[in-house]
Amino acid sequence: MGQTLPSTCDTLIIGAGMSGLAAGIRLAQYDQNVVVLDRHALWGGLNSFYKKAGRPFDVGLHALTNYVDKGTRGKPLTRILRQLRIPYDALELGQQWISESAFPGVKLRFSNDFQLLRSEVAEKFPSQIDGFDRLSAYLAEYPDLPSDGPPVFARTRLAEYLTDEQLVDLLLLPILYYGSPTPSDIEWGSFVVLWKSLYEEGFARPKGGVRTILSLLRDRFRELGGQLHMRQGVSQVLHENGKAIGVRLDSGHEIRAARILSSAGLVETMDLCGEALNKQYSEDKFAGEMTFVECISLLDTPLQDLGHDKTITFFNSSERLVYEAPTDAFDCQSGVICCPDHYDNQVPQHEPALRLTLRAHPKMWFQMGDEEYAAAKHAAWQQGHAAILPFAPDIRDHTVFVDTFTPRTVRKFTGHSRGVVYGSPTKSPDGTTDLENLFLMGTDQGFLGIVGAMLSGIAMANVHALQTSPS
Ligand SMILES: Cc1cc2nc3c(=O)[nH]c(=O)nc-3n(C[C@H](O)[C@H](O)[C@H](O)COP(=O)(O)OP(=O)(O)OC[C@H]3O[C@@H](n4cnc5c(N)ncnc54)[C@H](O)[C@@H]3O)c2cc1C
Q1: Is residue 308 in a domain?
Q2: How far from 160 is each of 144, 155, 185, 346, 470, CA to CA, in Å?
Q3: Residues 297 and 409 in one domain
Q4: Are residues 267 and 221 in the same domain?
Q5: Pocket around ligand 1 at a 6 A CB cut-off
Q6: Would the pLDDT of 470 be above 70?
Q7: Which structural domain, as residue segments, surrounds residue 294?
Q8: Mind listing the pLDDT tens digit for each residue in 269-284?
Q9: Is there a single domain that holds both residue 298 and residue 363?
Q10: Residue whose CA lies nearest to ligand 1 atom number 41
Q11: Among candidates 174, 81, 35, 59, which has minimal Cα distance to 455?
Q12: Whose CA is nearest to atom 3 of ligand 1?
């Protein structure tokens, strides 16, 4: 961004998303010469921002998870802010109104007060409340770290506490939609992280949307002397004798670095290392398949006036939970309805909005010609909004503008293979790769979401770049 590209640095970071910027700040605080590179023109990665028809949009912000009150100690949100030295008040957070997990004939409401979820379980599943209390007490003490070792899945562990499969499905629906790279289930360590971030803590939104967070991160990084270079894609990780020594950019420019932290993803990062290394990480085996289409509809009427007051509704219209890659381009049996205006303390960015997220096929969108692609986006909006009528008002006659992103959009702007949002089901909890000083952070290290990605960036910077002496 106006700076000359260097030819050496201490730590080189691939990606100016949440994890990359957080890692960059952490290292710049310790006077490292740190360079963040991103191929895209705007920073933020999967949670960036853009303008269309003069209207400002957030790419992905449904909710900042992990909400806690100012001054709460030892929780992810306050821990990140302390480590990055960003004041809590600068986020100008507004709390969610109320959210719900909804199946035909049964809903569990939840908010930033865990007792609401507990009372819903007690009322609707009285035989399960003892198991639920044992589960929540156990989880409250469980460390919020991605687990190492062979994966154990949440359904198996939950069966030790809950015998009603419908309750398990209701509790899993929001968790899978907000972070599972695996169809129908989620690895136990990730389940615990998401349980805490969604149910024990909760949802909030910065007053200015994702721009508020991203401006704070970028400004802090620059203030500390960090170098952020946009439109600078990394085409190759250079290595010798099993050690990464630097990168080559799309322009051919080379930068040598003592170490590299990459948020590009497992398959994508190994792809940069050349055939000898990437052949073990085939897209089919490692890229993951959970991706989404999201329709953002701008309305002529506030949703409250149409009788809808929920912040986020996770819906499932069949008896059992459906969370898998669809066989068609998209699938409307389950999804997420988000009303970004339904937080306290909001200044609407534009007309009232409704965001509808549906599961998308990980390959089909890339095979479509332009006309077929436009028609599929329109079909997702039409069919999706018809399918959610049991859970939300009919907005079709109130819609003044629609923007839809697909797996193709995700791949175009973030480089993620197949446009997957939650990365590979194979995570690297300690961030290590086949090269000695090349590390993964963000989604494929095992922490995702805005707060999770920032935590990951800070943790990987602390462990791999601050405990070794800079060159
Ligand atoms: C539609 C959508 C909605 C979401 N909603 C929420 C939400 O409401 N709340 C929440 O907490 N999370 C949400 N998420 C998830 C969250 O955005 C991500 O988990 C998080 O932002 C991931 O951050 P990251 O740093 O790990 O990776 P990314 O954001 O993917 O950043 C990686 C960066 O690396 C860059 N890059 C890749 N390859 C190269 C290369 N070769 N050279 C240079 N640069 C490269 C990319 O351009 C990108 O900027 C959402 C995601 C999506 C897609």
Answers
A1: yes
A2: 20, 9, 16, 41, 47
A3: yes
A4: yes
A5: 14-20, 37-40, 45-47, 59-63, 65, 233-234, 263-264, 268, 272, 294, 410, 414-415, 421, 442-443, 448-450, 453
A6: no
A7: 289-414
A8: 999 999 888 888 888 8
A9: yes
A10: 234
A11: 81
A12: 60
